[in-house]
Design goal:
Layout (H helix, E strand, L loop, with lengths): L7 H11 L17 H15 L2 H14 L32 H14 L6 H15 L19 H7 L7 H9 L5 H8 L6 E3 H10 L5 H8 L11 E3 L11 H7 L6 H4 L8 H9 L1 H15 L21
Antiparallel strand pairs: 1-2
């Protein structure tokens, strides 16, 4: 794939930097589920071939999981009559998708090695493969996470940055997860793929001063000032299904779709990283790998904590 060449050393260095912190390591399932990664790759290959945007959706699922009480598959739990999970929290309702893809992978993994692989690790692997299948880098996923027995509606509402977040808010939210400005900028580059709903960028294209007029005019055509909340627009209008550095070129041209996107190039310390990534896709890819490995290491459940869910949508 386009960014994968030459990045194995970067991934290895990142791997060594973060593997000792959380009892996660690459070959965690080597003996008990040797075909795990090929199963995940097979389902993701079929999925992305049918719907390229699903690669971005699975990556977003992973982000929304890790930022709410760690990478523990809590975002996958369905609400019940007595339990309110994260799926219908403000940042997730009518927005997150791809749950059925994780279900499909889990079903095949359970058939191959029942009760062994966590939903949290399946999500981490699927996110990696989604990025790579869209032309982005690959990396060695650290494994050994276990699944949460609960979820937090309130934490999902408070821990995830919104599309209207200021730069200072973004920095604060990411810092609370151990991620710096470089990580914030690199991970935001995930918006080189995927789509956003009109309701999430309407205020930006109608009210913000730092928007390219031709860009805002084009977006207004499909996102009226009232109505059409669910209308979708690509986060990267140049190459919406290609994981490249076009996102950074866009925001340098004041063509970021979300207010939070454009905040990364608005006379802030992130400006320097945006300039580098816009010119050099290899540096972006390397920094993205480093940052997502750090993100995947946010407060995982390991050892005897949590459980290995048989069904990712409910506890055992």
């Amino acid at each position: 794939m386009a960014f994968a060449k030459g990045l194995h050393l970067v991934a290895l260095v990142s791997l060594l930097a973060y593997s000792s912190n959380a009892q996660l390591f690459p070959n965690f399932y080597g003996a008990r589920c040797p075909n795990l990664q090929s199963i995940v790759r097979s389902v993701m290959s079929q999925t992305v071939a049918q719907d390229p945007s699903m690669g971005a959706s699975i990556l977003r699922l992973f982000f929304h999981d890790c930022f709410v009480n760690g990478c523990d598959a809590s975002v996958l739990l369905d609400d019940t009559a007595t339990f309110q999970g994260e799926k219908n929290a403000g940042p997730n309702a009518n927005s997150l998708r791809g749950f059925q893809v994780i279900d499909a992978i889990k079903s095949r993994v359970e058939a191959a090695c029942g009760g062994v692989v966590s939903c949290a690790d399946i999500l981490a692997l699927a996110a990696r493969d989604g990025v790579n299948l869209l032309g982005g880098p690959s990396w060695t996923v650290l494994l050994g996470r276990r699944d949460s027995r609960t979820a937090s509606f309130s934490a999902a509402n408070s821990n995830l940055p919104s599309p209207s977040s200021s730069f200072n808010t973004l920095v604060s939210v990411f810092a609370s997860k151990g991620l710096g400005i470089r990580d914030l900028t690199a991970l935001s580059g995930a918006h080189t793929v995927g789509q956003a709903r009109c309701t999430n960028f309407r205020s930006h294209i109608y009210n913000d001063p730092n928007v390219n007029p031709s860009f805002s005019g084009a977006r207004r055509n499909m996102c009226p000032q009232s109505g059409g909340d669910g209308n979708l627009a690509p986060l990267d209008f140049q190459s919406p299904n290609r994981f490249d550095n076009g996102y950074f070129q866009n925001i340098m041209n004041r063509a970021g779709l979300l207010h939070s996107d454009q905040e990364l190039f608005n006379n802030t310390p992130a400006d320097a990283f945006v300039r580098v990534y816009s010119r050099n896709s290899a540096i972006f890819a390397a920094d993205f790998v480093t940052a997502i490995l750090k993100m995947g290491n946010i407060s995982p459940l390991t050892g005897t904590n949590g459980e290995i869910r048989v069904n990712c949508r409910k506890t055992n």
